[in-house]
Amino acid sequence: MGLEGSHMNEQNKIRIGILFGGRSGEHEVSLMSARSVLSVLDPQKYAVTQIGITHDGQWFSGDQALEALSTGNTAALTRVTLLPEPGDNTLYAIRETGQGTQLEPLTELDVVFPVLHGSFGEDGTLQGLLEMAGLAYIGAGVLGSAVCMDKALFKDLLIAHNLPTPTYRVFPRGVVENQIDHVIEQVEEIGEYPLFVKPANMGSSVGVSKVNGRSDLMEGLLDACRFDRRILVEKGINAREIEVSVLGNDQPQASIPGEIVPSREFYSYEAKYVDDRSELLIPAPLDPEALQFIRELAVRVYQVADCAGMSRVDFLVDKDTGEVYVNEVNTIPGFTKISMYPKLWDASGLPYSKLVDRLVELAFERKAERDQTEYQYGRIE
Ligand SMILES: Nc1ncnc2c1ncn2[C@@H]1O[C@H](COP(=O)(O)OP(=O)(O)O)[C@@H](O)[C@H]1O
Ligand SMILES: [Mg+2]
């Protein structure tokens, strides 16, 4: 039996679970991404199970799960769960009966696509559950997901590999709150203002601020403290923002780079989601050598961060010097049809629906590869 054959049910369809919503601030962005994914899955090829995760973290399934999560009315859906043990790939319905709560097998899943952004979706926690359950899934594993979600650790990794990133310092929230003079002293060693302040673990530019002096800095630090217990301050680059889509497991490929032209002073939450006037330029108008350099750097970053399946690698290119800095990696980038990740692939010759097919194949390949690992060497029976 071929690789695909082993993952198909009797109707020769791949049983795919699409996970969306979730507990992070990017719940609504996830619903938009999932709407695009669901619209392109070929019903001849895939048997689709929609699984919506509410803001509170409950899992619900049903053919109308996406609509139900959008309206907040989950009454007609079935609560579902996975068991943290490998074997049968079963999604269970949670039923309240006269005898108490019971689990009833609902469907089997060959592969899961977590279309979830941010905490509890993109940060390795969900990936841990899927690993425990022995399921194939799209995207980076526990390690890559966690490393890319933590901006501080991610930058340490870049530095260890001699990859360029703006100079930075990291402070625990307690130090920001109780030793502000010490923090200011350390921060001003980074260099001249403007600086950028950000929570180590967030997304969508929440808690990110550009600061032009001490009073701004204090305000920015306190704001960032709301969103994480570790705060990063980094050198502000007068930057063009270049993004590259990377796809693959052990031999990742980079798309042509694109450029974001933010509608505001930087690519803030408002510029991303509120005023809808930021522009995407595809390909990024850079010279061929710079484009090639950035593509190669994107692949290198993807590899050192142990990414798999897909990731979008974001760069800051200094407008004055042309210097290229790695900003961050998103392991589950925005995935609507008009999002940068799929648009860059489309422009590179891989249309949206083919991209999803390829991600599914990569998920199976990665699972098969991981299944070759021995976990119980030397166990005495
Ligand atoms: N060091 C920096 N120099 C210049 N702009 C920055 C810097 N860091 C962040 N930014 C701006 O802030 C935006 C959001 O920061 P980012 O680190 O990408 O966080 P998020 O994960 O929330 O997208 C970036 O897209 C960019 O516009
Ligand atoms: Mg970003």
From the structure above, extract its key features.
alpha+beta; disordered N terminus; 3 domains; binds adenosine-5'-diphosphate; 381 residues; six-stranded antiparallel beta sheet; binds magnesium ion; Rossmann fold; 18 strands; Dna Ligase, domain 1; D-amino Acid Aminotransferase, Chain A, domain 1; globular
Structural overview:
The structure is a single chain. Strands 6-5-4-3-2-1-7-8 form an eight-stranded mixed β-sheet, sandwiched between helices. The longest helix is centred in the C-terminal third of the chain and has 19 residues. It has twelve helices and 18 strands. It folds into three domains: 133 residues, Rossmann fold, CATH 3.40.50.20; 69 residues, 2-Layer Sandwich (Dna Ligase, domain 1), CATH 3.30.1490.20; 132 residues, 2-Layer Sandwich (D-amino Acid Aminotransferase, Chain A, domain 1). The N terminus is likely disordered. 33% of the residues lie in helices and 27% in strands. It has 381 residues and is of the alpha+beta class. Magnesium ion binds next to loops.
